[in-house]
Structures are given as C-alpha cells and as structure tokens.
Amino acid sequence: MTYIKSKSSILKLLASITITLFCIVLFPSAVKAEDNQAAEVNADITLSNQGSISRMTDGSYNTKTTFSSGDTITITSSEKMYSLYIKWDLIPSEWTLSYNGKTETNGTNGFLHEYVQIPDGTTEMTITFASKESICDMHVYSKGSVPEDVQTWKTPCDNADILVFATHADDEILFLGGVLATYGGEQNLSVQVAYMCEFTTSAKIREHEKLDGLWESGIKHYPVCGDFPDLYSQTLEAAKKQYVYDDVKAYTTSCIRRFKPLVVVTQDLNGEYGHGGHMLFSHAVAESVETSNDSSVFPESASNYGTWDVPKTYLHLYTENKITMNLRLPLSRMGNRTSIEVQTAAYKKHVSQQWCWFYVSDDYEYSCADFGLYRTTVGNDTGNDMLENITTYEEQERLAKEAAEKESIESSKAAEEASIAKEQQEIKAAHKETSKRKVSVAVIVIIVVIIIGAAAFGYVRLQQSRRKHSRRRR
C-alpha cells in the first residue's frame, strides 16, 4: 500500500513538472514580460553647482533645483542606464546629454515632461545646461519597458483623427473625457488635445497635472495650448470683454488647419455650469469649423497649413442630433477599466483641483457621455459612434497602401503579359522569317537543280551530236 502511494506521488510530481515545462515553452511571453520591465536605477548624482539633489528627486512638483548656463549634472551607476526621465519646472530650452563619447541635443520638442532613450546603455552620463533651467523630478531606468506612468510623449499629431478643444486643464476630462479614453486610449487613434488657457504664468502645477491626466487617459500625443490667461466670467458677453475674440478664433482656426481633424469635439455653447470662458471657446470653435476652409479668413494660418473643412463637429450637451456614448464598457487597453473609471483616475491627477465639487459622471447634468452633432459633411449619425461615416487616417493609409500594391501587381502583370505577347510576336515573326528563308532556299535549290539538269541535258546532247559527226566521217 505504501509503495502504491509513493508511486502515485512520484507520478503526480512528474506530471506537474511536465505541465509546468510545457506552459513555459508554450507561453513564454508571461515570463519574458516580467524580464523586460525596466526598473529605476539607484544612481549616484553629482551637481556642479552643489545644489539640492533631494529637491529634484522627491517626486514633488512643489520643489525644484535650479541650474545656470554651463552647470552640469553627472549621473553614474554600476548598472547600465538605458533611459532618463525629467520633469522640468518650465518647458526647457535646448540642453545636451553626453555619454559613451558622444553628445546629443535634447529639449527640442518643448516637452515639460521629457523622456530620453539611451539605446546602448551607459554607466555614466552628463547633462549640460545652455541656459537657466529648473528640475522638479528626475529618474533613470534600466533596460526594458519603463513603468506605465513614465510619459514617453509623441510630438503633436501630423493629422488628427479627433481634435479635442478644452478651455482649461481638467475640462477635457470632466466634460469630454469619454472621448479621450474611448478613442485615444482604447482604440489608439490619433487624438490631439488643444487648450485655450495656459497656467505657466499663474499656477504652474496645473501644467504638470494636465500632462498626468492626459497620460492616464491614454493620450500619447503632446497637447498644444494657447497663450490666453485663465479668467472667470459668467456670460459670453463678459468673456468677450476679457479676451480678444478674434485672437481666440485665430487660434482655433490655426489648430484646425494644422491638425486637419476628421472629427472636432469641444465644450458646451452654454458653458456647462455657466462659465463664460467655456462659452467663448466653444463659440470660437463652432465658428471656426464653418470658415477654416476659407483662405481669406485668417490668411496667415491658411498660408502656413492650407485650409481644411472638418467632416464632423460635436459639441458637449448639444441638443440636436444627439449621441450618448457608452462609457460603462471595459476597455482592454486600459486595464479593463471602464471609461468612467479611467477618467475618474485621470481627474485625481489634478490634485490642486480636488477641492472643487466637480466629478466625472455619465448620469448627471454635465455628463461626459452626451454630445450633439453640430456640423457634418458626411451625413448624420444612426448610432452613438463619433467615427460613423469616417475613415481614420490609419485606415486611409492602409487602403492607399493596398491600392498601391494592387496597382503595382496589376502593372507588373500587365507588363508581364505585354512581355509575353511581345515574345510570342517575336517568335511568330522569327517563324515567319524562317519559313521565308526555307522557301527561298528551296527556290534556289530548284533553280540550281534545273540549271544543273539543263547543263547535263545540254552536255548529253552535245556528246550525242559529236558521236554522230564522228560516224559520218568514217
């Protein structure tokens, strides 16, 4: 009995080992994924100006270390470093990074949160400043995929599937957030966000929170922003006295022409809860989509980018041609969270605004799920998809590539058929020429035979004639 139990245990153990090895061979990605995760490197940092290292590595936007032109930061580690991540206090001017005997210029994209890859890795690097700069936070990472909260921004879109206009940082989440998570995060489309108001000169922390919120929403293209201050009013008329309305329209028109969006989304014409700035910006966008295809309106941006006629424009809470987005579906690319859950997490990134009563919801009067189709050149909607009747830029590129490949195949086929036809014609012509030659040779042979026959006949007659003459003489 003991022997049988022991044998059974051994068989179970062998079966377990076999299954484990089989899973490792069959599904290696799970094991590899963990191996490919980059970790933060505990590097040694030396500042040439003897400034505070802790104030630039404590994870806070409220602390910083400032550097002058010519100052350097040297970072060393026994472990190879493959990337550098800096959160600047303000958008930096150009700066250089030296490692492995070469020097690279960075700061060219105008990113407040800047990620730099070091493809071959290094154990020592030096940052050199060309002007006065301040760093709020800095990290270096080992080889592999960096943590999800490291913002590896792409430059603003060349062509945007969707262009989202928001008056302030956090408006894009509270009122338009369903668009960000659904189309930018889950569907991975080119979604570009354009803000009206800047906070660099008033509340710098909100510029950081803006980026953190967008990244949490799944947006990968760096946002653009107007140079308008944040001013509060309660009516459209009051807002028009605070801002130069034509300047705002020039900005919205320029964004439309620059990004050539297939869909434009912006805020409520009534300013959601009655904010005059929201009213002003949404009215500016609504007017701009009507005139952005006219080169005589704001001709400078028409000269820079050309004109553009937006196929579809949606306004938040617009009561005509209404659509209601389903924001309760799990989004696989967003960790199986719903759009509401994603945007709730994104709004929490706006730490400085958590004292406000605002919240993300799809079932109250400012629902981020409710929009209306304000203008269309491609027909009305029959469902709740903003991309109905729209072919995204990626799909257009795919179709164009397919058409080009098909054309290339057809062209090659036509060329091959033409080549075969030409070859057949040449063979036919050659056969014809050969036949002609054969006929000519045959004719010549016949003529020669006739001549030879005639000559032989003549010779025979001549001989016969001579013999006759010879007999007579005898």
UniProtKB/TrEMBL annotation:
InterPro entries: GlcNAc_PI_deacetylase-related (IPR003737), LmbE-like_dom_sf (IPR024078). Residues 406-433 form a coiled coil. The chain crosses the membrane at residues 441-462. One of its GO terms (molecular function) is hydrolase activity, acting on carbon-nitrogen (but not peptide) bonds, in linear amides. Residues 1-33 form the signal peptide. Pfam families: PIG-L. Keywords: Coiled coil, Membrane, Signal, Transmembrane, Transmembrane helix. SUPFAM superfamilies: LmbE-like. PANTHER family: N-ACETYLGLUCOSAMINYL-PHOSPHATIDYLINOSITOL DE-N-ACETYLASE, N-ACETYLGLUCOSAMINYL-PHOSPHATIDYLINOSITOL DE-N-ACETYLASE-RELATED. This is PIG-L family deacetylase. It comes from Lachnospira eligens. The lineage of its organism: Bacteria, Bacillati, Bacillota, Clostridia, Lachnospirales.
